Amino acid sequence: MGPNGASRAARRRVRKLLFNLHLYFALVVGVFIAILGLTGSIMAFEPEIDHLTHPHRSYVRPQGQPKTLAEIQAIAQQQDPGQQPVVFAMSPYPNVAWAVGFRDAAVYVNQYTGEVLAVDRSDANVLQYIHGLHLRLLTPLWLPKRDPHQVGKQVVSWAGVAALFLLLSGLYLWWPTKRVRVAWRSGERKSWFDLHNSIGVFSLVFLVVLALTGISIGFEDHSEPLYYKLTNSHPVERPNMKVAPQPGAKPISPDQALDIARAAMPGATPILVTAPTGRQLVQVALRYPEDLTPGGRSRVYIHPYSGQVVQSESSRTTAMGTRLINWNRAIHTGDIFGMPSKIVMSLASLAIFLQFVSGLVMWWKRTRAARRAKQSSPAAAGA
C-alpha cells in the first residue's frame, strides 16, 4: 500500500472512530442535551411567556405617576393581613404591574390605580420548573439531600461539554459530503440523515456559542477566576448583610431606600427593593437603559437605620471581569442584542432538540434495518 493509500486508510479509521464516539455519546447523554435545548428555547422568552400566560396580573395602562411603595404595601397587606412584605418588585416597563412579595404569597398591584390584580400563593409555576430543569435537572425534587443542586449542575455542565464534542465531531463527519439539502422520501433513513446534517450545519455557529457560554456558566468556579485573571481585575465582594438591631430606632421606609439608591446611581431605574426590617441591609437592584438583561446588574446596599450607602456596584463601572461574566450570560440567554438575538438563540436551542430527535430516528431505522438483514440472511434461514 502506497503513502496515499495508507493516508486514506488512516482517515477512514479516524472517521469510523469519530462516528462511533459521536453515536455513543449521543445515545448516552443525548437526552440531557435535548432537555437543555428544549428548556433553553423556552427560557429565552421566560418573561414574555409569563406575561402572555398571565395577562390579568401582568399588564396595566400607564396613567400619571405610580403610587408610593408605602401605599402599595398597605394595599397588598389587606390581602394578607398580619404579614410583613419581604420584597417589592417594580418592572422597568411602565405597562407591567408591580408586585409585593410576602413569605407565602405574591400580590400584583396596578401601580397607578392601586387595584389588586392577583394574589399568587403557589410555590412554583411551570416556568420555574422549566428553569430548574435547565439549570439542575430538578435534582432537589428527586435526589437524596446530599447537595442535590450541585449534582444536577454538574450533570448539566458535562452535558454541555458533550454537546460541544458532538457539534465538532458532527462537522468533521459532514465535511466530506458538505450536503445541506433534504431529499425527503417518506420513511427513508437518508431523508433523516439529510435533515440531521442540514439542521446541524445551519445552526452550528450559534450552537457552538451556546455550548461554550453554557460551559463557562456551568463551570463558573473555574471560569470566573480566569476572567478576573485575564483582565487583571477583582470582583466586588458582597457586604455582610446582617445588621445589629437598634431598639427604639425605626428603619427607613422602602420609598426612602429608593430615593437613596436613585441618588447613588443617577440614570438607573430601581426594579427591586428588599423590605427594610432592621435586621439586614436593604438591597436595591437597578437597571440602566443599556443593560443587557431585564434584571439589570447594578446593586446598592443601604443601612436600614442610618440610610448610609454601605456599598454599591454599577454595571457601568464594575470590574472588567464582572462585565465579561455578564456579557457571557447575556450571549447565552440571547439578551445581548435584544429581541433579534433572543429569537436566534431560542431557535438554536430548539435545533439541539431536533438534532436529538433526528439522530434518534436515524439510529432506530439503522438498527431495525440491520436486524431485518440479519433475519433474512441465508445463515439465519438455515438455522
Describe this structure in words.
It is a single chain. Helix content is 56%, strand content 10%. It has 383 residues and is of the alpha+beta class. It has a domain at 9-48 and 127-232 and 338-382. Helix 7 (148-174) packs across helix 8 (189-218), helix 8 (189-218) packs across helix 9 and helix 8 (189-218) runs antiparallel to helix 11 (320-333). An 8-stranded antiparallel sheet has the order 4-3-2-1-5-6-7-8. The protein starts with a helix and ends with a helix. The mean pLDDT is 91.
Number of helices, where a helix is a run of at least 4 consecutive DSSP H or I residues: 13
Outline, from the CA principal axes?
elongated
- Secondary-structure element sequence? HHHHEEEEHHHHHHEEEEHHH
Number of separate strands? 8
User: How are strands sequenced across the largest beta sheet?
Assistant: 4-3-2-1-5-6-7-8
Tell me the strand percentage band.
5-15%
Radius of gyration: 27 Å
Terminus-to-terminus distance: 40 Å
SS-based class: alpha+beta
Mean pLDDT, nearest integer? 91
Index terms:
single chain; 383 residues; alpha+beta; eight-stranded antiparallel β-sheet; 10% strand
What is this entry, summarized?
This protein is an alpha+beta fold and 383 residues long. Helix content is 56%, strand content 10%.
